[in-house]
Amino acid sequence: MAKLWNQAFQQSTKYELMINNINAALAGYSVVSLLLLCMIYLFSLPEMHKTRIGKVACIVLMTVLALVQFAHLLYFIHSTPLLSFRSYALLLGIVPVAYFFFCREILFHNEKLSIHDLAHAALLILVLLLPLKLAPTAAFLAGCGYTFHIYFKVQRLRRHIPRFKFEKFFFAVFFAMNVIALILGLFIPFVEPMFFFHAYSACISVAMILVVAALLVFPDLLSDVLLASQTAYAKSKLGNIDVDGKRRQLEQLMIGGRSYENESLTLGQVAEQLDLSPQQLSELVNSDFNMSFPRYIRQHRVEAAKKMLLAEPNASVLSISMATGFKSQSSFYSAFKELTGQAPAGFRKSQSHSSDAN
Question: What is the rounded (10 degree) CA torsion for 25, 30, 35, 36?
Fold first, then answer.
């Protein structure tokens, strides 16, 4: 009996050590990913509308989340009693506030700061005053509230974002993670801290993996949402413009001039050719085609690629992707799958079989 008990204990210790190592690796990955995402936002993505407040919120959010994961890493390695430190609770309180301001500055940058925004500091004061075991619960409750608030405001953008179900999925994931963290926070006084740290750290790691995957699969995701928000919240800039004429000119550029073949094509370049401002062209595409400019270009490229796949059966997928303006084969695959539901090779094969059957 003693031998069986000893074997069971060794086995449970082995699994606990394995889980500890996995979460430690994921926490380390999260720290690096967060810092890289912060640098990408600050020094890349030129099409993004970056306000000073948005930049500060981004730095604070990414840095604080990285510090939280680094603290979890210390727990996994040294069993550091994080719930005994007020600084850890304060980090948890800063995250939802920074998240709110970062999202607001990206999606609703036309909303000016007011005296009422000082009320957000109440959460930080609450976290500093509450007993340490209750502070995480207050932070996660605020996180759920902020996520709901941003989600309902984004509902106004639905008609401007054809892929909105994809964004809704991510909101649902982040809200679910907040709820899980909230439940864990409620049970902190009654469960071992180990369960809380493992689950919360895993939630952050999964969120980072999803964000990185989304940006790799849908590289224009942020610009799509940004352009949609600009159209939804801005006053029309097409009042004195011959919209029908400009739409015909745009289609002529794409279909007749095949401007989409230029892999470096930008909103500004096309706007200049149409004698429009970038904002006017963005609104024209959003209102007349019900999509963002990047998606509009992707659609023309994919349509051209579909024709080439069938007309040139011996041409490689790589050569077709380059001929239709895609910067890489991976971006071609992502766009093609997004708009047709099939991979390029699968589309060519299914269409050829269909032709043979006829």
Answer: 90
